[in-house]
Amino acid sequence: MATFLYKLGRLAFRRRHFVALIWVALLTLAGVGAASAPPAGNSSFSIPGTEAQKAFDLLEQRFPGASADGATARVVFKAPSGEKMTDAENKATVQKTVDELADGSEVASVADPYTGNAVSKDGTIAYASVKYDVSGMELEESTKDALEDAAQQARDAGLTVEVGGDALQAVPETGATEVIGIAVAAVVLVITFGSLVAAGLPLLTALIGVGIGVSSITALASALELGSTTSILAMMIGLAVGIDYALFIVSRYRAELAEGREREEAAGRAVGTAGSAVVFAGLTVVIALVGLAVVNIPMLTKMGVAAAGTVAIAVLIALTMIPALLGYAGRRVKPAGAKGRLLGRSRKGEPKPDRPAGPPKANLGTRWASFVVRRPLAVLLLGVIGLGAAAVPAASLELGLPDDGSQPTSTTQRRAYDLLSEGFGPGFNGPLMVVVDAKGSDAPKDAFDDVAGEIKGLDGVVAVTPPVPNKGGDTATITVIPDSKPSSVQTEDLVHAIRDAGGDVEAKTGAETLVTGSTAMNIDVSEKLNDALVPYLVLVVGLAFLLLIVVFRSILVPLKAALGFLLSVMAALGAVVAVFQWGWLSGLMGVEETGPVMSMMPIFMVGVVFGLAMDYEVFLVTRMREAFVHGEKPHQAVVTGFKHGARVVTAAAVIMMAVFAGFIGSSESMVKMIGFGLAIAVFFDAFVVRMAIVPAVLALLGKRAWWLPKWLDRALPNVDVEGEGLRTAGERGSDPDEDRELVRA
């Protein structure tokens, strides 16, 4: 592989005009496609194989025209102090609001509070339910404006009015912190390279890659039903890996220049060596993201595939456009150690005149690695204990999907949620819809009544509406109001109790009972994600483990990489629980409401963090293996790997953390949580696992770390990540077969 990538790097360097033209053309094409594409509609949130989805599909079949997937709104009214909603003046205001809402072109129905028993017992709160023909993301702005205007007119009449439901669902915004994250990345690059030109290359290529990826997602959003969150996550991951991959290659290019090579040769060798690490690091990220398809949740699969596509673009740009831009930059990108006047040195990289010349001082990475190999056991224990302590809150992990109760208190959706809880009880915000399929029953009506009777006798039920049959009389819906809030364990227990009771009724009458609704759907999603976590881990970690065996030609190094990842991801989950569930530092993170952790957070974090963690593993440890294969002793190889790689890995980690942290300012709770989780996970993995635990373990293992059975060594393809095929005979100093024998010994 190294030889192929070496040739590719030299070709891109020589044909830089052609390469640049191709990428600019692709960016333009993607931009035109995004600009001319129809706006994205609703992102389908179907959950195949769950009871809630089966009931939802049955409703669409048996209740045609009911707009089962249409948006809903609850306009909640509260009377002024000392008045009631049944007072004539307040009643007239509500009636006027209902009439105005019913005139909307996309409105399917509006339920009058006074005819639909939607007034609280104390008479102070009432609500009107609005049903639309289309989903929340497909509603026209004029329809949303009409809803808000109707609510405002009722407010002007003296009532407190808030609007809940998904009709006012907004596209998430990332906020200014995203720009701050990119600015931090730019500062880190300037400090790392000491040159504005060298620092600008990774940023430029990352932005081009993300531009192509996100524009392509936007262009395909309507056809593939991609939600707005998909493009945000693709941007988040694409920016992070795009900057990092380019950073690795530019850094190696400068190191090759420092060894006296011509620029075209240095570009070829940088792509042949660091580029090989980029390819395998990118492959692990792609495997982890595409592997999300195992969960069988279409939305999650689309998010993973879209993000994986952006990562693949980042890899291709790093391998081709970076050497092309290095050709354009010429002498403005200096050899390693020659940092120009920006950081206080001469243009030739010589020491300042007032400083006496002397032997080069060991860099921080060398000093740190030397310390670790002298005290590996102490460093290992400290790192493991520290991550273990950070992981403790993960034992209290509670999973759920957000509802209006998790919105900030400044939103009208949250205030409507609180008003409904005040007037009708917390369970009113999460009603359960029970669908009774009596097509196989001899007495459908009796079956409907039996189900309603069974549910009324269950604990935790506040109210059960009479069965509402369809026109054919073979299916009915029953609405159940729990006495607990939607995201509580008690509501989850009630859903299971209703399903168990439905099984007893089916045995007697032949009628099937299904529970659906947003609350039941959330419960089913959480359970499905929990069930898929172990198979997903086995698949992703297993495939990446095999890939790393090929890269490192070792059994213990990939095993250590996987175990270190598990430590970092558990510690990161612990931090997420502490902030978003327990409320620690919630004010600093902009978390206005604590609650259950997003159901898809653990499995998404496992996938993304595993892929990103392997970036640092591949780049840092391939440098160590390169030194070992070329004859250095195991401990010295660890130090050499840190000498060349620690600065770059540190810069890459800080950049990735800054980019991810930039998304904490998003208005979307899922994006905010993922941004924080990935940022803290990168911190734990890069600075504790890869920079402390990894060298400590390698120092303890010594030569055994690179052991590989001879039969397996012969069976595995030689991908030559170390670039051995690029070394001249004089550079090798020995036969390459002898170098490989060192590893087998």
Q: Which strand-content bin applies to the residues?
A: 5-15%
What is the number of helical segments per DSSP (H or I, 4+ residues)?
Answer: 24
Beta strand count: 11
Q: Structural class, from helix and strand content?
A: alpha+beta
Helical fraction: 55-70%
Evaluate the radius of gyration: 30 Å
Low-confidence stretches: 343-358, 732-745
Q: What's the oligomerization state?
A: single chain
Distance N to C terminus: 25 Å
What's the average pLDDT? 82
The biggest beta sheet reads:
5 strands, antiparallel
How would the global form be characterised? elongated
Structure report:
With 745 residues, the protein is α+β, with helices and mostly antiparallel strands. The chain is 62% helix and 7% strand. It has 24 helices and 11 strands. The chain has helices at residues 2-14, 16-36, 51-62, 88-102, 141-156, 177-193, 196-224, 228-258, 263-290, 298-329, 364-374, 376-391, 412-424, 444-456, 489-509, 518-552, 556-581, 586-589, 601-629, 634-661, 669-701, 710-715, 729-732, 736-744, and strands spanning 72-78, 107-111, 125-132, 160-165, 399-400, 432-437, 461-464, 468-469, 475-482, 512-516, 597-598. Strands 6, 7, 8, 9 and 10 form a 5-stranded antiparallel sheet that branches. Strands 2-3-1-4 form a 4-stranded antiparallel sheet, sandwiched between helices. Strands 5-11 form a two-stranded parallel sheet. Helix 9 (263-290) runs antiparallel to helix 10 (298-329), helix 9 (263-290) packs antiparallel against helix 16 (518-552) and helix 17 (556-581) runs antiparallel to helix 21. It is elongated. The chain starts with a helix and ends with a helix.
